[in-house]
Every structure is written in C-alpha cells, then in structure tokens.
Specification:
Blueprint lengths: L2 E6 L3 H13 L1 H6 L2 E7 L3 E3 L14 H4 E3 H4 L5 E4 L5 E5 L4 E4 L4 E3 L2 E4 L3 E3 L18 H12 L5 E6 L9 H15 L7 E5 L8 H14 L2 E3 L4 E5 L4 E4 L4 E3 L2 E5 L2 E3 L1 H5 L17 E4 L2 E8 L12 H20 L11 E8 L8 E7 L12 H18 L5
Parallel strand pairs: 1-2, 1-9, 2-5, 9-20, 11-12, 11-17, 12-13
Antiparallel strand pairs: 3-4, 6-7, 7-8, 10-18, 14-15, 15-16, 19-20, 21-22
The structure holds flavin-adenine dinucleotide.
Flavin-adenine dinucleotide (FAD) binds next to α1, β2 and α9.
C-alpha cells in the first residue's frame, strides 16, 4: 500500500513541507511506499516579504522570484498551472479536483493555499489603488509614485485585520521616512499611518514602534478601519465616518481565503479555516479531520499570518506526518512560534540601517528590544538565503 500525501499550494508553507518530507521519505518514495503530490496554480514562487522593499530598490524582482520546478524536490510529483489549480476539496471523500479536470485522492492532506487581497472589499479602493501587498508589478509602480511624489501627505492605510505580516506596513512607514530623509525632502512630507486597531503587535513591540514613530515625526491614527476611498477628492473615510485628506494613498487591502476554500465549505464564520492550534489538524465546518493539516495564511483568523510562522508550522506538520507514517507515534506541537522582522532605519552611504527580528509564541510575547545595525545586515542577507535554506527546509 502506498501512503499518499497531497499538498495544496507550493508557496512558503507548502514548499517547506514538501521538501522536508521528500528528504525524509527518499527511500520510501523510491520503493513506491510513499507518494507526495503537490498542486499549485502558478509556475513561479514569489517571496512576498520582499514586496515591502521593492519601492525603495532594496531588492530586485530577480531576487524575489524563482521557478517552483527548481525549488521543489524532484522526488515530488509536481503539478502546476491548470493541472495544479485546485477547484474543489471534499474532505469526506478525501478527494481534490483541479481545473484541468483531474481528481486526486489522498491519505494525508495539507492545505497551504495562502490568502488573497480583496481589493473590492472597500468602496472606491480600486479607483486609487497603490499597494505593495499584491504583486511585484504593483510594488514597482508604487516605487515610481514615491520617487515622483511632489505633494505633502502620504497616507499608509491598513484597511482591517487579519492581513499577512501586520508588521510590513509599519516597516514600510519607517522606510518611507528614511527614504525622504535620504533624498533631503523629509521636512516637506507628512507621513501618516492609519491602523485598524489600538495596539501595534504585542506590548513590547507596540512600545518600541510607538517610540520610534514619535521620534521620527510619523503620525499614527489608531482604530481607523478603512470604510471608503473618495479618489476624486483624495479623501479616505473610516467605517465610523471620520474623514482624512491625502496626496498619495498607500493601502493594504482586506484579505481573505482563496475562493476554492469558500466554495468547498471549509472556512468558519470568520471566513478563515480553524485548526487545532497545537497540531494544526483541520477543525472547521466540514468536521474534525485528523488527516488534514492547515498551514500558513489560510489558517484561523486569530493566528498571526507570517512567513516565519508558516515555516515553523510546516516543520511541525512535516515532522508529525513523517512520524505518523513511520508508525512511531511521536508528535511535536506548534506553540505559536512566529515573528516580525522590523526595520526602523534604511541604510544610506552615510547612515546605518537598523532592524531587529522580534520573535514570540502563543504565551511568550517578545521582551524589550531595539533595532540594531547587525539586525539590518541579518535582514538584508536573509532574502538571499530564503530560497536555498528556508524553502529547502534546511533551516
Ligand atoms: C507585503 C508583504 C510583506 C510580508 N513580509 C513578511 C515578513 O517580513 N516576514 C514574514 O515572516 N512574513 C511576511 N509576509 C507574509 C508571508 O509572505 C506569508 O505569511 C507567507 O507567504 C504565507 O505562506 P503560505 O504558504 O501560507 O502562502 P503563500 O506563500 O501565499 O502560498 C500560497 C500558494 O498557494 C497557491 N494557490 C493559491 N490558490 C490556489 C489554487 N486555487 N490552486 C492551487 N494553488 C493555489 C499560490 O500560487 C501560492 O503558491 C509578508 C507578506 C506580504 C504580502
């Protein structure tokens, strides 16, 4: 009997699970005892974390994009394009269908389909959509607008939670501040961050960034959920009716799960997929399924959506799946390990960059910290080892 593992999505989480299991089961795969199939609609992998930096030319598109065929182990049965685009998931029948018409059965299923920006989720948003949250192309276009900016007020608006990497708009605001200081226009520009909640991250994170915002003269408006964009008058309006003017609007659109998750009835009333917070096994509206794991941005509303978290989750699931198939019963748990690499200063020829990778877990918030020059170098380096260390599941 062959143990069939089916992985939906070869983004950050799906690729790590696939590569770790392919290494773990290399002999069993060769003997035909284990089969790993990975389905993804896209040929190319994109490191979305780099979108934040593209407007400031800190990375290039080539740094952030790789072919999935090169990243995934050759031991994996990889289906991309319409043969990999998932159109239906039936947990009772243990069956998945793709756009190309094929059907896949499994013994173990890993759902790692990420999240998508819902640009129609806010009235008027598409009339003036400038964002680094959707694609390489949109990030580059935003960079062009920042370089040509001759108005006064740049508004960075985070529409509502949850979004992938809530720290990204925070570091984007600090990068904007550094950029305008470096081109000697900072006094002419007002930078305003509109945030949909009161705290920005866990208490020590909130304290650190609040201090830096004050120090750098970045305005922060909390509890402002974006309700409407009036592009002709350049005004944003909160869901409570407060109005603010802008010259350039940068938005983080609302996010939701992929359509196939909704169509297959797998999400809960929050619109996301619930899992057992320790084992990551499916616990949604389609019942409890111990052979189905949910990873990364697709996961529950209240579990932070970060690449760092997706990586830890992928390692836990790969470990537990391997032990289950090997029959030794050893399980490890996910304890909410996640993190947020924060940047407060971008380097320039005469200035140091400063960053820090704050990490925490469910019940262990980060201790007091500050950004450092070493943190900046670590962060800059990370994007080059992402593909060969993180995605290959070596780290
Ligand atoms: C602007 C930005 C900045 C960020 N910065 C950071 C950061 O600094 N640090 C950090 O830790 N995280 C960061 N993140 C978050 C991080 O990128 C995500 O949390 C991570 O990519 C989630 O991994 P995932 O595997 O769940 O989803 P993804 O990596 O998005 O992968 C989902 C995969 O599913 C595929 N897919 C979707 N629908 C279908 C379908 N119907 N059929 C088949 N395949 C499908 C997609 O093609 C994709 O390959 C950032 C995100 C953004 C947008």
């Amino acid at each position: 009997m062959t143990d069939k593992i089916l992985i939906l999505g070869a983004g950050y989480a799906g690729a790590v699970v696939a590569n770790k299991l392919a290494r773990e089961f290399r002999r069993s795969i060769a003997k035909g005892d284990v089969e790993i199939t990975v389905l993804d609609k896209s040929e190319m992998a994109v490191n979305q974390g780099g979108f934040t930096f593209l407007p400031f030319s800190l990375y290039t598109p080539e740094d952030l994009i790789r072919s999935k065929r090169e990243l995934l182990s050759p031991r994996v049965n990889l289906k991309l394009g319409s043969e990999g685009e998932v159109t239906s998931i039936d947990l009772d029948k243990q069956q998945v269908e793709v756009k190309g018409g094929s059907t896949y059965n499994y013994d173990y299923l890993v759902i790692a389909l990420g999240a998508r920006a819902d640009v129609n989720g806010v009235e008027g948003l598409t009339d003036d959509l400038n964002t680094f949250y959707t694609s390489v192309e949109d990030s580059l276009k935003l960079g062009e607008k920042i370089r040509n900016f001759d108005g006064n007020r740049i508004v960075v608006s985070v529409s509502r939670m949850p979004i992938p990497c809530p720290g990204a708009p925070v570091k984007f605001s600090f990068l904007l501040d550094s950029y305008f200081k470096n081109v000697l226009k900072r006094d002419d520009v007002t930078i305003s961050l509109f945030w949909p909640m009161e705290p920005i991250g866990p208490p020590e994170f909130n304290k650190m960034v609040t201090g830096k915002f004050e120090e750098k003269g970045i305005e922060v408006f909390r509890n402002f959920k974006l309700g409407k964009v009036d592009a002709s008058n350049k005004v944003i309006e909160s869901t409570e009716g407060e109005k603010e003017k802008y010259d350039l609007l940068v938005t983080v659109p609302p996010h939701k799960v992929q359509q196939v998750i909704l169509d297959s009835g797998l999400s809960d009333e929050s619109g996301w997929i619930p899992f057992d917070k320790s084992t990551l096994q499916y616990r949604g509206s389609a019942g409890n399924h111990d052979n189905v794991y949910v990873l990364g941005d697709t996961g529950p509303m209240d579990v932070l959506k970060t690449g760092i978290g997706a990586h830890y989750q992928a390692m836990v699931v790969a470990h537990n799946l391997a032990n289950d198939i090997n029959g030794n019963g050893i399980k490890v748990s996910y304890n909410g390990e996640t993190g947020c690499p924060i940047i407060t200063d971008m380097a320039a020829p005469s200035k140091d960059g400063k960053a820090y990778i704050a990490t925490w877990s469910y019940n262990l918030p980060p201790d007091e910290f500050d950004t450092t020059k070493l943190g900046w170098y670590m962060y800059r380096m990370y994007y080059y080892i992402h593909w060969d260390a993180s995605i290959k599941a070596i780290l």
